[in-house]
Design a protein that fits this description.
about 375 residues, alpha+beta, Fumarylacetoacetate hydrolase, domain 2, 2 domains, eleven-stranded mixed beta sheet, five-stranded mixed beta sheet, 18 strands, about 25% helix, disordered N terminus, Fumarylacetoacetase_C_sf, hydrolase activity, FAH, Fumarylacetoacetate hydrolase
Length: about 375
Amino acid sequence: MPGDSSLLAMTLANCLPADWRAGLFVGRILTADGPSPILVREGIAHDMSRVAPTVAQLLEKLPLATGAGQPLGPLDTLDLPLLSPVDLQCVKACGVTFALSAIERVIEERARGDASAAADIRSRLEERVGGSIRAVAPGSPEAAALKAALIEDGLWSQYLEVAIGPDAEVFTKAPVLSTVGAGAQIGIRSDSTWNNPEPEIVLIANAAGSAIGATLGNDVNLRDFEGRSALLLGKAKDNNASCSLGPLIRLFDGDFTIDDVRNAEVELTIDGPEGYRLEGASSMNQISRDPLELVRQTLSEHQYPDGFALFLGTLFAPVQDRDDPGRGFTHKVGDVVAISTPRLGKLVNTVVTSKDAAPWTYGLVALMTNLAARDLLKDPAA
């Protein structure tokens, strides 16, 4: 099943938020009987499968369910694999929500996916539009004026449209139940030669569309595919094991709020098998659209009866050369990617090709069959 955490020499304790004993968390574990949602309060993990057999259902029962469940012991001593903390939720993502990422997408487009052509285009674009993009609010009259000027200069792009126009880019990142969790392998297409991780904060919304918590995510991106054509977004984004989430969902409460998301510093490290190391960060206070505005646009003409997870985008776009000068960064098989914030913990995954990653075989039919065999599909209140 996606998300088996046995693949990395790491411990759960090393991936927990700094204040994990104080927060309220939801996650999923793999028990001998099958996947089960857990609730962590005051540092103690509780199996919630008899209260709500899926995370989607558990989130609808909060806060009433916070006092229930079977105690499993302190979270840092839990000896069961962590899975991705979402199950039935749709997995959505927002793109080009930072000025820097907008510039990088225009570079991909103009380079037609050729990494060797990117450096010269990058310097010219940053000189012409970098400061202007950072200075305007999306959808504002100033943004419209900038658009007109860029069209006149021949610099307009579909990526700038979603960066400073009225409508955010919102797309479906991964099928239900296909995401992987902390410690799992994360996949890139075997035929991609220019790709990178996208370290992001992911909001978790319930069926009513309210943001009720957050987790970390890696929205793997294939820059060569999307650069050749934006119509290849599906191939660039949705591949086997190409989306990781975790380690846990931190629920909003009096101590952890949406403002913690707005002000978070998302750190990234990549350690390559050849000794290469890359470090970077994404400052959420540089986002062009407020996270709750992105939630609003996701909901504007759609409903999500099982809730949804929403990637908020990233400021991070690695341009540091890894091999040949001028070719920038791309993943290698064996890269260990770690995404972290003090309040959400650390999400660690090892890069493989999507062909070599553990195949996704545990879908909705398998889950419902398992829950039925465990007699968990009856309403506990009935």
